[in-house]
Specification:
Layout lengths: L28 H11 L13 H10 L7 E4 L6 H7 L5 E5 L2 H11 L7 E4 L14 E7 L8 H14 E12 L6 E2 L2 E2 L5 H8 L3 E12 L5 E11 L1
Parallel strand pairs: 1-2, 1-4, 2-3, 4-5
Antiparallel strand pairs: 5-9, 6-7, 8-9
């Protein structure tokens, strides 16, 4: 990735240059996300979920057991990990490119963080995740849509296919075709279930998909598509 500096901006939704309306462009994703999480309270971020109900619904539908290996990619400071722990899942791996984001999440979890495997790694240039054993569930909310060039998309899906075992599951939630064209000052791609299916290939079967309107902390709306796939 480039060493180009990221312009410092606020990630409060209503700020003049917020993380969801800024025209800032950057190719240094680690610096961008470190800056975002360093300078903004978690509950002010435009993607903060108090309770990740759509993800929990699809995880429940997958039917995985409590010993299943769950990889939450691009986790940021998600509340999903708290929910998984409360449901007694005991093999959770949490990834993000930003160690600042994961540091905040570990602090939120307190002693429970000791039961999680933490991996700072870039999904498109992996040096750690690509050495993991096979996993039962890949979970991605709002990460895939930031990968705009074909090379990064290929790297993302190659890593996914390398890690997800036969009969394993994939949950991807991303901006749908009615969604924003930018978030966090970065251009994003929009998807539907068919477009994600094309990227995954025929070895993955679509189990469920639905559009979902997410309400941001400032009460704005964001149009998502949630998908659940199973590897044949």
């Amino acid at each position: 990735m480039s060493d180009k500096k990221t312009e410092s901006i606020s990630c409060e939704i209503n700020a003049k240059k917020s993380c969801c309306n800024s025209e800032v462009e950057t190719t240094d994703y680690k610096a961008h996300w470190d800056n975002t999480y360093e300078n903004t309270s978690i509950d002010k971020l435009g993607w903060f979920e108090e309770t990740p109900l759509p993800s929990l619904r699809l995880i429940e539908k997958s039917g995985i057991n409590n010993n299943a290996t769950i990889l939450n990619v691009g986790a940021g400071a998600t509340t999903l990990v708290d929910e998984l722990i409360s449901r007694e899942f005991n093999n959770i791996i949490v990834n993000d490119i930003s160690d600042t984001a994961l540091g905040k999440l570990r602090k939120c979890l307190g002693n429970q963080s000791e039961h999680i495997k933490w991996i700072v790694d870039d999904l498109t240039h992996s040096t750690v995740l690509n050495k993991l054993d096979k996993i039962d569930l890949w979970h991605d909310r709002a990460v895939l849509h930031f990968f705009n060039n074909a090379e990064d998309q290929v790297s993302y899906f190659n890593l996914l296919k390398k890690l997800v075992k036969t009969n394993g599951f994939v949950i991807i939630a991303t901006f749908n075709f009615n969604g924003a064209s930018k978030c966090s000052g970065l251009p994003v791609q929009q998807y539907d279930a068919n477009k994600i299916q094309e990227k995954l290939g025929i070895e993955f079967e679509l189990i469920e998909s639905f559009d979902y309107t997410y309400i941001t902390p400032s009460k704005d709306t964001r149009a998502y598509v949630y998908t659940l796939f199973k590897r044949k």
